[in-house]
Write a structure and sequence with these properties.
It is found in: Nucleus. The chain is an alpha/beta fold. β11, α10 and β12 (307-312) form a beta-alpha-beta unit. α3 crosses α4 (94-108) and α17 (472-482) crosses α21. It binds adenosine-5'-diphosphate and magnesium ion. Magnesium ion binds next to α3.
Length: 675
């Protein structure tokens, strides 16, 4: 009997194996079919020929035509990886690099991280076997530090070139330069249907290869009057579409994680209330900090009878293509960095997107069939209130880190660097001044030892406090700050509990100290998920902070800095933050704060642990403009430290009212007096 059972068992197994095999075969076949159906496929041979004939080629094609996933595979298939050479493909966004690499690994039929991999900041998913490497533009930029001529690459693809991120723009200049003495290097600049003439022009009239797109007509609808609350308008529009429109998935563009989560919650709640009166609506978010298994969900096919709504950041504008979208809802906003070169203030602002962006968004509705785009703004606003195109990031950002990087690549004359669009002169000068103030450059504008170290570490300057010494607590803080505002969980139905939990973490000193406290307690819990759950802390953000922290520790080990712990005493920690961020100092002043150097009025963010206390002197981590200019993540300092850590930057006079040595702990009275 037993042998019969075993027999049967093995037969079953074989059968199952056969079935699994044939299933894999089916998947493989359908993958090949999908690959052949993409708009780029008929141009495969022409494209390869053009690449063979030209060193630099601009490739223009509608989003979803297969530029990112297919062209690198064509290159692999025709041997560009021979002799262990790599094909690199840059993406402006982390999520896109990861998601596309995963997809291509699947298409090629290899495990992600083997032949096909990706590399993003703090996460390297490649191996010696990797020949096709997707990466963020920032990561390729860093590779210049170790391999100035990119000798291990046979092809570099600068993808999503139209996004014109700071890093992509710098890559343009560097790659154009090395292409001159690397005649064997192929350079492909891939872009959506935008700006390609400019790219061609910049790269000495490189030819443009156009992949004709298939695009179905998209009907565009505007609102009659401006929307007071675009989030609510999105929710209502989705439900209206769901109830009144024929089948087809829906894509909503919002500006960030918080908005997206709120929108998804609202949609789910209203669907629950409507119950069986409506068919199923699958609500799926996508944004940078979303875990990758959740990200992958947006690509799974919609079950018949239901409708999918993807609520996305700009990532879905051109970086990721979701099949089956027929309806697009576009409130017309995006989150943009903006920089005031006069005051040196950088802030993230929700602003109207450009007309070019709006048109790309609308285009997402017409990939598979005729579609509809609902713009939650008026036709007048489209014409008169939106810019034609988005200003390249290089013209609206702090250039500190880029200047540092270029200097360490030996590029000293930044004024004459080959920029496609040069940054404003003041911005460049200010960056040089700040780096000088930090001690990264000497008075000749040359990189100092400290500057070189700063360039090697893709981290906050505050980590490098004092001569070759840092404290692990500061490392934790830097890691926590890098996961930026996604630590505390505040679900709508448990606001009171969540706020109480948050209050329990408050310690004197400010938000940096609170973050450190959260991390320390979590570590003491054994990095427990349950602990996070009980304390309204987002587990995945903490996990990420832990990853970042480990990587930073590795980096610090590599450059052999000494460790000097400051357990139990917050002063050295706060001084370290001051040393790194002294140019972000604000002083209490009537009704709010004033930045020390530029007398700009700013306010403590209501979420801050120092919102009530309002100490006299603060260092802020970042500024966010919503209803007014808010400082997010602030730490209380003693103004005398400023003279200690940045004597070249501050004069005694500027810090005058600090003459009362100790800050009074109770600021309530002072606040009243100030009215
Ligand atoms: P382009 O770069 O020209 O915009 P892509 O190469 O990104 O085009 O996309 C080609 C096709 O691959 C699209 O139909 C898209 O839906 C599909 N695709 C891309 N990434 C994924 C993924 N992670 N899962 C499933 N399909 C994907
Ligand atoms: Mg692409």
């Amino acid at each position: 009997v037993s042998s019969a059972v075993t027999m049967k068992g093995t037969q079953d197994e074989k059968e199952r194996e056969r079935m699994a095999l044939s299933q894999a075969e089916v998947v493989k076949q359908s993958i090949q079919e999908v690959r052949r159906s993409l708009p780029v496929f008929p141009y495969r041979e022409d494209l390869l020929l053009a690449i063979q004939q030209h060193q630099i080629l601009i490739i223009e094609g509608e989003t979803g035509s297969g530029k990112t996933t297919q062209i690198p595979q064509y290159l692999m298939e025709s041997g560009y990886n021979e002799g262990g050479m790599k094909i690199g493909c840059t993406q402006p966004r982390r999520v896109a690099a990861m998601s596309v690499a995963a997809r291509v690994a699947q298409e090629v039929g290899v495990k992600l991280g083997n032949e096909v991999g990706y590399s993003i900041r703090f996460e390297d998913c490649t191996s010696e076997r990797t020949v096709l490497k997707y990466m963020t533009d920032g990561m390729l930029l860093r590779e210049f530090l170790t391999e100035p001529d990119l000798a291990s690459y046979s092809v570099v693809i600068i993808d999503e070139a139209h996004e014109r991120t700071l890093h992509t723009d710098i890559l343009f200049g560097l790659i154009k330069d090395i292409a001159r003495f690397r005649p064997d290097l192929k350079v492909l600049v891939a872009s959506a249907t935008l700006d390609t003439e400019r790219f061609s022009c910049f790269f000495d009239d490189a030819p443009v290869f156009r992949i004709p797109g298939r695009r179905f007509p998209v009907d565009i609808f505007y609102t009659k009057a401006p929307e007071a609350d675009y989030l609510e308008a999105c929710v209502v529009s989705v439900l209206q579409i769901h109830v009144t429109q024929p089948p087809g998935d829906c894509l909503v563009f919002l500006t960030g994680q918080e908005e997206i989560e709120t929108c998804c919650e609202l949609l789910q709640e209203r669907c629950r209330r409507l119950g069986s009166k409506i068919s199923e609506l699958l609500v799926l978010p996508i944004y940078a900090n979303l875990p990758s298994d959740m990200q992958a969900k947006i690509f799974s096919p919609t079950p018949p009878g239901s409708r999918k709504v993807v609520v996305a950041t700009n990532i879905a504008e051109t970086s990721l293509t979701i099949d089956g979208i027929i309806y697009v809802i576009d409130p017309g906003f995006c989150k943009q960095k903006s920089y005031n070169a006069r005051t040196g203030m950088e802030s993230l602002i929700v602003t109207p997107c450009s007309r070019a962006s709006a048109n790309q968004r609308a285009g997402r509705a017409g990939r598979v069939a005729a579609g509809k785009c609902f713009r939650l703004y008026t036709a007048w606003a489209f014409k008169h209130e939106m810019e034609e195109t988005t200003v390249p990031e290089i013209q609206r950002t702090n250039l500190g880190n880029v200047v540092l990087l270029l200097k360490s690549l030996g590029i000293n004359d930044l004024i004459h660097f080959d920029f496609m669009d040069p940054p404003p002169h003041e911005t460049l000068v200010l960056a040089l001044e700040q780096l000088y103030a930090l001690g990264a450059l000497n008075h000749l504008g040359e990189l100092t030892k400290l500057g070189r170290r700063m360039a090697e570490l893709p981290v906050d300057p505050m980590l490098i406090y004092g001569p070759g010494c840092f404290c692990p607590q500061v490392l934790t803080i830097a890691a926590m700050l890098s996961v930026n505002n996604s630590i505390f969980y505040r679900p709508k139905d448990k606001v009171v509990h969540a706020d109480n939990a948050r209050q329990n973490f408050v310690v004197p000193g400010g938000d940096h100290m609170v973050l450190l406290n959260v991390y320390t307690q979590w570590a003491e819990s054994g990095y427990s998920t349950q602990w996070c759950y009980e304390n309204f802390i987002q587990f995945r953000s903490m996990k990420r902070a832990r990853d970042v922290r480990e990587q930073l520790e590795g980096l610090m080990d590599r450059i052999e800095v000494e460790v000097c712990s400051s357990e139990g005493d917050s002063v050295p920690i706060r001084k370290a933050v001051t040393a790194g961020y002294f140019y972000h100092t604000a002083r209490l002043s009537k009704g709010g704060y004033k930045t020390v150097k530029h007398q700009q009025t700013v306010y403590v963010h209501p979420n801050s642990s120092l919102f009530e206390e309002q100490p006299r002197w603060l260092i802020y981590h970042e500024l966010v403009f919503t209803t007014k200019e808010f400082m997010r993540q602030v730490i209380e300092i003693d103004s005398s430290w400023l003279l200690e850590v940045a004597p070249h930057y501050y004069k005694n006079k500027e810090l005058e009212d600090s003459s009362s040595k100790k800050m009074p702990r109770k600021q309530g009275k002072a606040k009243e007096e100030l009215g």
